[in-house]
Amino acid sequence: MSTNNSNPSTIPPILIGVIVVLLTSALKNLKEYIHNQVVESKQGAVEIPKEIFESSDISVIDSFVKDEELLKTLNDPSIWTECRDYSETIIGTRWWDGKSEPENVWEILAGKIWSSRPEADGASGFEYWCNILEKDSPLAWHVDRDEHMQNNQGVMRYPTMGAVFYGYPHTFEGGYLETLNAGVTEVNPFELPENSPVPRVKAEYNRLVILNVTKWHRVSPVESGQRYTLAVNVWHGEKPKGV
């Protein structure tokens, strides 16, 4: 009786190489998948209060200026440029006490904006400035405050309320006013997920927007054209430093 002692087949080296490559690739993909799941899980664990996307502190008044002569004056882009240029100097913003006679069109507008609003009762005055934003001049998330006091004393002091007025017949794309119902101690807007449901207001000509400027707000990127704005904040108590 004979016995067949045949050896098991030997795996070709080339096949071993293919198996190693496939296993290495599969292991790499598994590690990336696990990493992504952990990252997504951590991001999903961050709860963002829905209340920050409410817009209860915003009032919008269209066709605010009725005076045709005043509107005609505001149609001159040179006065906006002059106001913007002043705002970009070392002095920055301007001040009107609300009691003396207005010295320029901006103080006239400040009076019209705040004269009948309860937020301005007993105000010490009004801080105002102009912005002209375009594609390469964004305005990121911020809150309005006494910047001089913050920089020199480390103290955060805020205006009572703010207003923005779009008094020039500008033509542009983008540039929405976006707001959050939260201040600096409540949320970091730079950590919000993309496409968050942020309240936004379009900068329509002759539109006035009253808002709580102690809460986060910004202007979304201007895609084309120029966006003209007058901002007027109400202050109570001490006048802001450096104004």
What's the structural blueprint in terms of helices and strands?
Elements: H1 13-45, E1 59-61, H2 68-74, H3 77-87, E2 94-96, H4 105-114, E3 125-133, E4 139-142, H5 147-153, E5 161-166, E6 172-174, E7 177-179, E8 200-201, E9 207-211, E10 217-219, E11 222-225, E12 227-235
The gyration radius over C-alpha positions equals 29 Å
- The largest sheet has its strands arranged as 1-9-5-12-3-2
Mean pLDDT across every amino acid position: 84
* Span between termini: 113 Å
Structural class: alpha+beta
Q: In which range does the helix fraction lie?
A: 25-40%
The 3D shape can be described as elongated
* Contiguous uncertain segments of 5+ residues: 1-8, 33-46
Largest sheet: 6 strands, antiparallel
Beta content comes to 15-25%
In short:
The chain is of the alpha+beta class and 243 residues long. It contains 5 helices and 12 strands.
Overview of this structure, please?
With about 240 residues, this protein is α+β, with helices and mostly antiparallel strands. Strands 1-9-5-12-3-2 form a six-stranded antiparallel sheet. The longest helix has about 35 residues. The N terminus is likely disordered.
Question: Can you give keywords for this protein?
Answer:
about 240 residues; alpha+beta; six-stranded antiparallel β-sheet; four-stranded antiparallel β-sheet; 12 strands; elongated; disordered N terminus
